[in-house]
Amino acid sequence: MAELAGIGFRGVVALDGPSGTGKSTVARALANRLATRYLDTGAMYRAATVSVLDAGIDPADSEAVVEVVAKMQLEVSTDPDDPATILSGRRIDAEIRSAAVTAAVSAVSAIPAVRTQLVAQQRRIIAAAPTVAEGRDIGSVVWPQAQLKVYLTADEQVRAARRAGELGSDVGTVTADLARRDKFDSSRAVSPLRRSDDAVEVDTTFLSVDQVVDVLTDLALRRVSAFGGA
Ligand code: DC
After folding, report:
1. Among protein residues, the one whose CA lies closest to atom 6 of ligand 1
2. What is the pLDDT of residue 6?
């Protein structure tokens, strides 16, 4: 199945949705099934936030943030088995998941000039090879021409429980944090989190990762054959 699926897909899958919907796990597994690259755009906004915090800058000071982010040296590995985020030659995979970064990333990612810079880098990466890209605005802004656009959702309590399980933290705190970030990410002026009209919505509340990946693999292969294998 894996090899067969890999042979058939040469396009881009845009996977958007809020945190805790299983997006990252699903995106990596789907990239493996389809034999594509994997791009975690949230990791790029998190890396920008690390550069801001390392420079001792207040994430609310947008002018200073833009200056630091413009100079950062960010590279990402798009291997779904080993996605790496590298800032100035240093792997920061653990650091980007810290509580301090999670608390500041919505403010940094809401700054228009930061988004322009990172979207340009994301487009260069996606243009280079078939990719499953995950984020908030892939189908709407980064790659609207994606062969398949998916918007993952899940019940809020289930999303918080999943995130708490990953982080080993208390569900109450995670619920409050998710609600705060969702509100911020959905209401910002530039590229807010929203489902594109042509995205397929998949509710993952009652589905396992494997079930979601099966559904999406099927959809991706059908889209490609419908579009003549482009
Ligand atoms: O997916 P994540 O939790 O790692 O994303 C971190 C933050 O980055 C999230 O609060 C919203 C922002 N983000 C964004 O604005 N646009 C994207 N394409 C991906 C993430």
Report:
1. 42
2. 52
Atom 9 of ligand 1: nearest residue by CA position: 106
Residue 207 C-alpha to ligand 1 middle, in angstroms?
23
Lowest mean pLDDT across 8-22, 55-69, 127-141, 207-221: 8-22
Domains of the chain in start order, with CATH, are: 10-222 (3.40.50.300)
Contact 162, 22 (CB under 8 A): yes
Q: How many A from CA of 228 to the centre of ligand 1?
A: 33
Strand partners, 87: 74, 90
Q: What percent of the chain has pLDDT over 70?
A: 94
Rounded mean pLDDT of 80-102? 96
Pairing of strands 200-203, 74-76: unpaired
Give the residue from 219, 199, 220, 181 showing the smallest Cα distance to 20. Answer: 181
70-79 pLDDT, tens digit per residue, is: 999 999 999 9
Contact 65, 50 (CB under 8 A): no
Which 8-state DSSP code applies to residue 97?
G
Instruction: Tell me if 134 CB under 6 Å of ligand 1.
Output: no
> Do residues 22 and 152 make contact, with C-beta atoms less than 8 angstroms apart?
yes
Q: How far apart are CA 180 and CA 139, in angstroms?
A: 23
pTM: 0.91
What local confidence, expressed as pLDDT, does residue 187 receive?
86
**Are 223 and 5 a contacting pair, CB within 8 Å?**
no
